[in-house]
Each structure stands twice: as structure tokens, then as C-alpha cells.
Design brief:
By secondary structure, this protein is mainly α. It has 2 domains: 7-35 and 267-302; 54-261, f41 fragment of flagellin, N-terminal domain (Up-down Bundle), CATH 1.20.1330. 69% of the residues lie in helices and 4% in strands. Helix 1 runs antiparallel to helix 7 and helix 2 (45-100) runs antiparallel to helix 3. The longest helix has 56 residues, at 45-100. The protein is rod-shaped. The mean pLDDT is 83. Belongs to the bacterial flagellin family. It is found in: Bacterial flagellum. This is Flagellar hook-associated protein 3 FlgL.
Length: 303
């Protein structure tokens, strides 16, 4: 037996259909304005969980990128200092060779050369105490503001600063001063063979009061200092190349993860716009049809 369709039933059904149509329009409008197909987890639980994983991976990848940038900055600072120090020591070597030529240099000439060596030593000492973000760049991982004292004593340590540059990949982003300029502490004072500043101090003294043989002997320790700096520069170059390669990989991974996230929660704007227009047209048509079907009666006004 068919049930009776009353005026109230028709009105309720029409209103429910109009509200459902409005809800679909509202959802499409939200997607168009936000550019995302998922506004809350209940929209699509599986896609929402996948989007969260992609966002977590993107955040981790961005941290790796920051670590790489931080590492390259520190290595660039150290490389600039060591390039300058290398040139300074090369000049010292030339001066020492000149000073050792006793036949061509008198005491006054050697004194002038010694003063040049002293000046270069002071420049190198200042360079070795270069700071980056308030910390001595050659202090190892020690939180100090000066890596070397005036007498060449080393205040830092031999530890490296590490940065995570990729999953499971940690890179040393500094060269401790001991590897570049030499060691020496208050308890174990620096020696000329193990400390560039002591080597330069001894060379200066040999130029002032020594013979060609003692100057040549002192020059040998300066050459050891040159070898240390050359080795440190080679290590910085290798680490810089490693970080540059990791940076390229990180950027490529960032693009991949962003595209993957867009695939999960992105909106096809053209498709959504067409669907929105269709829903809007359907809503306007339904509204007009409902207005004709549901005509108000005197009873509606009396309620």
C-alpha cells in the first residue's frame, strides 16, 4: 500500500536535497580556495595518513638541507683562512731561503726579514683565532673564543663537529686547529716541529742570531707547517665536495617529496571548477523547481 505524500513531506525532502547540494558546493569551494583535497582526516583517512608521512619526510629533509648549509658555511670560513695562511707560510719560506744566504745578507738585512716573519706570525695567529657565530672555528668542538694563545698554546681539542646530512650520513664539518696549525698545551708546551707558531718564532730567532745552517733547520719546521695546512685544505675540499653532492641529492629528494604530497592532497583545479559550476547550476535549477512545487498556502502564514 502506497504511503501518502503530504505537502510537509515534499518540503522536507526538497530542503534536504538542497542542503546536500549546498554541502557539496561548500566542499568544492573549500578545495578550490585551499588547494587541498583533504581538510581533515575524516575526509580520507588513508590519504591523510600518507600526507602526514610525506610531511614528516619533508621536515626531516629540510633539516638535512639546513645542516648541509651550516656545514658548508663553516668549511668555507676555514678554507678562506687556510688559503691565506698557506700564502703567508709560502712567503715565509721564501724569506727564510733569502735569510739563509749568508753571503748576500748582513745582520741588518736579516733583522728586516725577521720582522717580516714576526708580522706574518701575528697575521696567522689572528687567522687561527677566527670566529664564526661567536666560536673559534679552529677550536675543535670546544666552546671557546680563541683557539690559540700568543705563545702558540692550543686551547681547543681535536674533536670534530658533525652534522647529519642525509639518513645515516654524518659529515665532519670542521678541521680542528691541531690538524691545521699544530698542537701544544700549557702542560706540554708546543714544539717547532708540531706547532707552526713555535716554528715561526724559532725561525725569527735564527734569523736574528743564528747561522745559515740554523735558519735552514728552522725552515724545515716551517715546511712541516705548510704540509699541515696543505693536508687540511685537501680534507676541507673533499668534505666540501661530499656536502655539495649531498645538497644536490637533498634538493632532488625535496622536489620528489613535494610532488608526492601534492599527488596525495592536491586538487585538480580545472576539474574541481567544472564540478563546482555543475553543482551550482544543479542547485539553482533545484531551487527554482522547489519554489514552483512548494507553493505557500494560507495555512503556512497562519502557523
Amino acid at each position: 500500500m502506497l504511503g501518502r505524500i503530504t505537502h510537509r513531506t515534499t518540503a522536507a525532502t526538497s530542503l534536504a536535497n538542497l542542503q546536500a547540494n549546498q554541502l557539496r558546493q561548500s566542499k568544492l569551494q573549500e578545495q578550490l580556495t585551499s588547494g587541498k583535497s583533504i581538510s581533515k582526516a575524516s575526509d580520507n583517512p588513508a590519504a591523510a595518513a600518507e600526507a602526514l608521512r610525506h610531511r614528516s619526510d619533508i621536515a626531516a629533509n629540510e633539516q638535512y638541507a639546513r645542516n648541509i648549509t651550516d656545514g658548508r658555511m663553516l668549511l668555507d670560513v676555514q678554507e678562506g683562512v687556510l688559503d691565506s695562511a698557506l700564502k703567508g707560510l709560502q712567503k715565509v719560506k721564501a724569506l727564510a731561503v733569502q735569510g739563509a744566504s749568508t753571503g748576500n745578507n748582513d745582520a741588518a738585512a736579516r733583522e728586516a726579514i725577521a720582522k717580516q716573519v714576526d708580522a706574518i706570525r701575528e697575521e696567522l695567529l689572528g687567522a687561527a683565532n677566527t670566529k664564526h657565530l661567536g666560536r673559534a672555528v679552529f677550536g675543535g668542538n670546544a666552546d671557546i673564543t680563541a683557539a690559540y694563545e700568543a705563545d702558540g698554546t692550543y686551547n681547543g681539542n681535536s674533536a670534530s663537529i658533525k652534522r647529519s646530512a642525509a639518513p645515516g650520513v654524518d659529515v665532519d664539518i670542521n678541521i680542528p686547529g691541531a690538524s691545521a696549525f699544530g698542537t701544544g698545551t700549557t702542560a706540554a708546551p708546543p714544539t717547532a716541529a708540531d706547532n707552526t707558531f713555535k716554528a715561526l718564532e724559532d725561525l725569527s730567532a735564527a734569523l736574528r742570531s743564528g747561522t745559515g745552517a740554523t735558519i735552514t733547520a728552522s725552515l724545515g719546521n716551517v715546511e712541516l707547517g705548510l704540509d699541515r695546512i696543505t693536508g687540511a685544505l685537501a680534507s676541507i675540499g673533499a668534505r666540501g665536495n661530499q656536502l655539495a653532492a649531498l645538497q644536490d641529492t637533498t634538493e632532488a629528494r625535496g622536489d620528489y617529496l613535494s610532488n608526492a604530497l601534492e599527488e596525495v592532497e592536491g586538487v585538480d583545479i580545472a576539474k574541481a571548477m567544472v564540478e563546482f559550476n555543475l553543482q551550482n547550476t544543479a542547485y539553482q535549477a533545484a531551487l527554482a523547481a522547489t519554489a514552483k512545487v512548494i507553493q505557500p498556502t494560507l495555512l503556512d502564514f497562519l502557523r
